From TrEMBL:
Native species: Glycocaulis abyssi
SUPFAM superfamilies: Thioredoxin-like
Pfam families registered for this protein in UniProt: GST_N_3 (PF13417)
The protein's name in its UniProt record: Glutathione S-transferase family protein
InterPro entries: Glutathione_S-Trfase_N, Thioredoxin-like_sf
């Protein structure tokens, strides 16, 4: 099993967390990819060329959720539960939160004159709505730990947001902060910390 990743991709981080949480790290080789480069080793297996990409038993899996589910299934943890629509709905909310944070990272890398202030405001508004919603879920103990895709995705998003200081006062969401601090202390999170 080969998992292609980049150190700062929150999407690839979810797969790296899965390898550790589901105790299959020894069965996999983590390989660095070179996104947006002509010599990206992922291109040997997939024309998409993004991370995470998992290669195993003749399969090439490229979506973070699918990679996580495959690793979990490989470890004997069962399938991701497509029929659990409450879980699917929560996952969509959390994935949308990460999508906004990832957009913000990319937009902030652009030169100031190339950035869209309108889109940055849209993403900031989305981030604030999501933080309030997630804090409510955390207060009712409705958030899973990082051994589940939703938890790994949320922890990766919060870490990325915090590291880039997109919302300096997000920790006013006390329940969400307490949840994040518990997850951040897990070995799978420490071992996959991005190089920001």
């Amino acid at each position: 099993m080969i998992l292609f990743y980049t150190p700062n991709s929150p999407y690839a981080r979810t797969a790296r967390i899965a390898l550790r949480e589901w105790k299959v790290l020894e069965a996999a080789e983590e390989r660095l990819a070179a996104n947006r480069e002509a010599d990206n080793p992922v291109l040997e297996f997939s024309p998409v060329g993004r991370v995470p990409t998992l290669v195993h038993a003749g399969l090439v899996i490229t979506e973070a959720r699918s990679v996580f589910a495959y690793i979990r299934n490989f470890a004997g943890g069962g399938n991701a539960g497509e029929a659990d629509w409450k879980m699917v709905a929560e996952e969509g909310q959390i994935a949308g939160f990460l999508e906004g944070i990832a957009f913000w990272v990319r937009e902030k890398r652009r030169t100031p004159e190339s950035r869209s202030d309108v889109l940055l405001k849209v993403e900031r508004d989305r981030m604030m709505r999501c933080l309030n919603h997630l804090d409510t879920l955390a207060a009712t103990a409705a958030l899973p730990d990082v051994s589940q895709f939703r938890g790994a995705t949320l922890a990766s998003a919060l870490h990325l947001m915090d590291a880039h200081q997109f919302c300096r006062d997000w920790k006013n969401n006390k329940a969400l902060t307490a949840w994040f601090e518990q997850q951040r202390d897990r070995p799978s999170m420490r071992e996959t910390e991005p190089q920001i």
